[in-house]
Amino acid sequence: MAKKNKGEKSSSKSWAVLSAVSGIAAATVARKALNSGWKAATGKQPPANPADPDVAVREAVAWAVASGAIVALARMYAGRRAARYYVKSTGHLPPDLRKDDQER
Description:
By secondary structure, this protein is mainly α. It is 68% helix and 0% strand. The protein has two helices and no strands.
């Protein structure tokens, strides 16, 4: 395994920060949109805890499916946008996204 040089280590750290921040921001925005959409569609607040026995199973499952899918899609999209920005800024893919045979 090749030893990382100093520039690659800082590049790796900057990617980690960019990736984390974009993922957190995307999840936060998606969650707010989900809450608003749920309230508009059902007329009530989304379940605070779908595992609560007082929440109907149908409602808990619908919330789990909707929130899981929407948050995952938002994070994936944000990660792809962050990677595109990283490539434009550095000229190469982030370390985590490089293929095994790809040096840069």
